[in-house]
Amino acid sequence: MTEAVSSPGSISISNASADVAGTQGFGVDIGGSGVKGGIVDLTTGDLIGERFKIETPQPSTPKAVADTVKQIVDHFEWTGSIGITLPCVVTGNVARTAANVDKGWIGTDAGKLFGELLGRDVTVLNDADAAGLAEDKFGGGKDTKGVVILLTFGTGIGSAILQNGVLLPNTELGHLEVDGKEAEHRAASSVKEDKDLSYKEWSKEVSRVLSRIEDLFWPDLFIAGGGISRKADKWIPHLTNRTPVEAATLLNTAGIVGAALAAQSGLAP
């Protein structure tokens, strides 16, 4: 199943393959349920035209997912470099773990796989890292100096750490032990649902996790992402940690935007 979603305030272009003086990029965000892609205005972080989404194939093997990515790239007739996110730890373009995708990704040279199939320069990175790049530059962390930490609250907790815009990749803070439990087993949004916690009750667990992280990294700002960030007004005011917390603003486009930024910069996690 495919889905074309218009971006609010976007503009139409007649030649989607054009990279106007390096101001446009292309990103693909691979998730457990959907693969999304689009053209990005690298000066504003906005999508240009539509976002195109195809359901993640099942099983989500490397070949099946790569073929899906090609469909998205072909849809836009994009000919420039491409950034692609994976729900995996990625080093040297090789997937080292596999969360919400087929375990066959582990050990796969994703850069080579996508590069050979697409015939373009490809940058592959962790999905939370991509979201962190986007939020730091265009979203909740815009204009913030120092250390910014993005945490995405979902089935687990994803993370990205940036210092003055420079990414420290693959931090995996969701696995940090907090009072005898992994952080994501204590404060993922799935825990709130499974235990039927109120926002105020759940925020106590989030505060414990944030307090532990800030004692280690002393960030200047936390950015809270994931679907639950849409209701940030219901729980962020209840947090008791010392570091300011802002809700993510890019939401469904953060992975695409961050992937495009990574490709532009030649990031090599």
Automatic annotation (TrEMBL):
Coiled coil segments of this chain: none
Among InterPro entries, the record links this protein to: ATPase_NBD, ROK
Q: Name the Pfam families for this protein.
A: ROK
The family line of this record is: Belongs to the ROK (NagC/XylR) family.
**NCBIfam families reported in the protein's UniProt record:** PolPhglucPhase (NF045942)
Q: What is this protein called?
A: Polyphosphate glucokinase
Which species is listed as the source? Answer: Rhodococcoides trifolii
